[in-house]
Amino acid sequence: EADIYQTPRYLVIGTGKKITLECSQTMGHDKMYWYQQDPGMELHLIHYSYGVNSTEKGDLSSESTVSRIRTEHFPLTLESARPSHTSQYLCASSEFPDWGEQFFGPGTRLTVL
Amino acid sequence: SQQGEEDPQALSIQEGENATMNCSYKTSINNLQWYRQNSGRGLVHLILIRSNEREKHSGRLRVTLDTSKKSSSLLITASRAADTASYFCATFDNDMRFGAGTRLTVKP
């Protein structure tokens, strides 16, 4: 079944730890996105990718980095987590053209103590 | 950055009533989409309306688009408790921009 997965769903870590949030999709979509969303608030685009070896920064400045070595996989890494990184992180994918429907994963809720 | 703004921010209705949410945006768009988000989950695409369309239906959903006023509305008819969620509009003008959402509560 075509889907988009995120792991872990919940993560509580201490300040200074390095973390990687995983995102995988089985739909063969070229474009993938990472959004950051605080509770009850709008989504902010932090990274996106047009395909393998393509990564771009979004509107919201973020200290995270991403990689796209395989079409299906788009992990997000925080080298040194801080309490200000506490938020929900949503991964999404879409087919070209990029104005179409986006498919979202269930999200990772990150808490940095 | 935010492009669409939903109104109202929160809406509480009884089961069976209709729910109307509005979205205003600032720039010209290719299309406008509505998404639904259950608490703590990812977003689910509901409906897409192109800039040259004025109205679109999908089941109990009706979306209108007025490009002259840069606004859209989402109507959910005969609401159910399961419709309780946040509803976001998203516009595409080089990239997708989401609003802050309307939090809909449908009381049984």
Short key terms for the protein model shown above:
heterodimer; A: 113 residues; mainly beta; Immunoglobulin-like; seven-stranded mixed beta sheet; 11 strands; B: 108 residues; six-stranded mixed beta sheet; 0% helix
Percentage of β-strand residues of chain B: over 45%
**Number of domain units of chain B:** 1
CATH T-level topology of chain B: Immunoglobulin-like
Fraction of helical residues of chain B: under 10%
Largest sheet of chain A: 7 strands, mixed
CATH hierarchy: architecture of chain B: Sandwich
Mean pLDDT of chain A: 92
Plain-language structure description:
Chain A is mainly beta. Chain A has a single domain, classed as Immunoglobulins (Immunoglobulin-like, Sandwich). Chain A is built from no helices and 11 strands. The termini of chain A are far apart. Chain B is an all-beta fold and 108 residues long. In chain B, 0% of the residues lie in helices and 57% in strands. In chain B, the strands form 2 sheets. In chain B, strands 2, 4, 5, 9, 10 and 11 form a 6-stranded mixed sheet that branches. In chain B, strands 1-3-8-7-6 form a 5-stranded antiparallel sheet, with no helix packed on it. The mean pLDDT of chain B is 92. At the A-B interface, strand 5, strand 9 and strand 10 of A face strand 4, strand 5 and strand 9 of B.
